[in-house]
Amino acid sequence: MYERRTPMWSETTKDGKVKFREQYKDPLTGKYKKVSVTYDKNTNQTRRRAQIALEQKIQSKLRHIQDGNIKKNVTLGEVIKEWEPVYKKQVLSGTYYSWSTYKKIIKDKIGFDVLINKITSKYLINLYEDMLYKEDYKRGTIIQLKAKINHIMKYAYQHDYISTLPTANLEINWPRERKKSEIEEKFLENDELRKVIDYLEHLQSPNHHLYASLCEWMVLTGMRFGEATTIQVKNVYKANNKYFVEICGTLVYKGLKSKKQFKSPLTKTNDSQRTILLPKKAVAIYKEFSKESEEDYLD
Q1: What sequence ranges are listed for the domain Tyr recombinase (predicted)?
Q2: Label partner for 292 (CA 20 to 30 A): which of 4, 70, 160, 251?
Q3: Boundaries of every domain in the chain
Q4: CA-CA distance, 20 to 35, in Å (whole number)?
């Protein structure tokens, strides 16, 4: 509980709106501070909404003053709202874009109004296994969901919202791994690959040759799509009569229109930053699509 100096009051702003204010005492300084919210009108409804909003602002400001003590009555949704801006700065744009999918799953399967200190290891194990075996979610989806919840719970632990980590050492009964032969079925034989490239080459599109060459470039170099589409002339160099390409970025495109897509200076993982020796066919593709400026992309 905090000390109020005066009840909520209102002031009219220069543009005719109503600013509701309240003062509270900061336990660290002993001084009174103000919080405020602004609405278009001063009515019973807006006053009630303002009182709730001001209370939430004050509680948010005071929450970290309690660091070192476990805070009570904090919901999962409140922690997610606080954690999201931090997570956004920690990961690539594409990774953060995919978070919206798992956020929806968390909301549907757990709920944002659940008190975060009530989430236990057994609860999470039952959740993951029910999704795997009763709802037929793919293993990869659960692995990613588990990783996101681990991030959130670690943040909650670091900020004294929970006293122990329920995500530590979870023993999940995973479905059996696919056999090697099942995985190999996902790869194309040389004749199958040639059919794909020929199909792209004969598309009814002005970019048909570009698409076919991009596909072949990816096969020859082992690059991901995002890496291949952001290779610039300056990333390819010649040494000892051999051509090399430096992979030092990836395309950020998820959720963005084509004109707003851009090259990130970071690859998907740290290990993805690498230098590759180009085979002769890849060198031919490079020479065909490279331009004079070192900043230009291959297109």
Answers
A1: 183-299
A2: 251
A3: 4-64, 76-158, 190-292
A4: 8
- Cα 87 to chain centroid distance, Å, stands at 7
Four-way CATH pick for 76-158: 1.20.58, 2.40.30, 1.10.3470, 1.10.150:
1.10.150
d(CA 238, CA 256): 35
- 267-277: burial string, b at 16+ Cβ within 10 Å, e else: beeeebeeebe
pLDDT tier for residue 185 given thresholds of 50, 70 and 90: low
Transcribe 190-223 into DSSP letters.
HHHHHHHHHHHHTSSSTTHHHHHHHHHHHHHH--
Phi, psi of 10 (to 5 degrees): -125, 150
Q: H helices within the chain, ranges in order?
A: 44-63, 76-90, 93-109, 121-133, 139-158, 180-184, 190-201, 208-221, 225-228, 280-289
Half-sphere exposure (Cβ direction) of 58: Cα atoms closer than 13 Å: 24
What does DSSP say about strands 242-247 and 274-277: parallel, antiparallel, or unpaired?
Answer: antiparallel
Residue 12: partners with Cβ closer than 8 Å, 6 or more residues away: 18, 19
Tokens of 286: 């490079």
What is the tens place of the pLDDT at every residue in 196-222?
A: 999 999 998 898 999 999 999 999 999
pLDDT surpassing 80 at residue 165: yes
Q: In what order do the strands lie in the sheet containing 236-239?
A: 236-239, 242-247, 274-277
Q: 193-197, 235-239, 272-276: lowest mean pLDDT where?
A: 272-276
Q: Is the pLDDT of residue 77 over 80?
A: yes
pLDDT band at 26 (very low <50, low <70, confident <90, very high): confident
Q: What is the dihedral of CA 129, 132, 138, 142, to 10 degrees?
A: -20
pTM (2 d.p.) = 0.56
